[in-house]
Amino acid sequence: MAAALMTGLLAAPQAGAADSSFKLAFIDPLSGPFASVGELMLAHVQFAVADINAKGGANAGAAGKVKLDLLQFDSKLSAQESQSALQSAIDQGARVIVTGGSGSTVVAALIDAAAKHNERNPDRQVIVLNHSSIDPDLTGRRCSFWHFQLEANTAMKMKALANTIKRTPEVKSAYLLNQDYAHGRQWAKYGQELVGLARPDVKFVGSDFHPIGRVKDFAPYLSKVKAAGADTLITGNWGQDMTLLLRAAADAGMNLRYYNHSAGAFPGTVTAMSLAKLGQLTWVAEWHPGQADTPKVDALAKAFKVKSGKDFLAPRIDMTPRFVAAAIEKAKSLEPIKIARAMEDLSFDTSVGPVRMRAEDHQLLLPQVVNTIAPVDGKAVKVGYEGTNWGFRTDAAFGGNELAQGTECKMVRP
């Protein structure tokens, strides 16, 4: 089963069925300030679904072989809009919801709504697969049987960064600047806790939160950073909130170190760094472009570029529909509850190596690579990105088991 995920999943449509497809629904931002992020995520999911279907679909055992059918909805970064989209997706027959790029507040609302729906409608249950929202509470005290986290959570990512900062004596004074919502507050919390444990000598000289997606000028925030004497920003910003922050810091002549969860995976970040020419942006993900010794991801990235015309940046998002197909094969069923049970403790091979979905809290144990956006030097950074002469330098790599944290999850199973 594991090898089938990357080399092809199965054969023909379900014979004799009224509907020979299994429906997934993508719910993420496709308009507004983070539309480019949502469109890139959608392209990853579309590519994986098309690849699975081109190779036959998913084998549901006695139910036959089915292809995946992807519906798409705009979350508009709104919990209310996302819940309306969820109901529309269910009404259209979707049984798996793919989300994560709308922020943890929106994703949490979707998870809660799905759980309530499933309790009332056992004949139309849905599973929520979260590819990018990394609030540890989603697999901790707010865990749900119907939710599966396919991205390393905040605590795992911050542990990888803290281990790297431990070996970076240049970091002496840190400022916490984050978006004012659940994820931003978690990034600040774990930043202070885990970096503080790794480097007790680091001084935390300030903390600020700003509205998500609404700040046009970060100069007032950066003036506080400068006045505090910080040399490092621990920021969970993403999308335009990251690029605008970088531009404002460059305009102010501030040469800061930034520690972030997935900045390089968002369009425009490398370009912003190349134009700024000041600062070092270090981030952590399961893979980065130009990473050495990653032939499976390299092949996937090349195929994705040819098919979509976009740069490939997130193996975990491509992995998400493949995870569904693997679970269908394991369950030998198209019933959501059986698929969800099959997902628990599911191990499978991916483009970034073998991974396992931890059963106790539904957290995927995914490897993480700490890397820094830097100029091409022909050695550590061999390839430019986004049409620039800047790319990614590998700083450290960690296995999923190395970063695994304890959990507060008290899973209630139906």
Automatic annotation (TrEMBL):
Residues spanning the signal sequence: 1-17
UniProt xrefs under Gene3D superfamilies: 3.40.50.2300
Transport keyword on record: yes
Origin superkingdom: Bacteria
UniProt domain Leucine-binding protein: residue ranges: 22-364
Keywords: Amino-acid transport, Signal, Transport
UniProt cross-references to InterPro entries, sorted A to Z: BCAA_transport, Leu-bd, Leu_Ile_Val-bd, Peripla_BP_I
Pfam families (alphabetical): Peripla_BP_6
Keyword field contains Amino-acid biosynthesis: no
Cited SUPFAM superfamilies: Periplasmic binding protein-like I
Family: Belongs to the leucine-binding protein family.
Designated name of the protein: Branched-chain amino acid ABC transporter substrate-binding protein
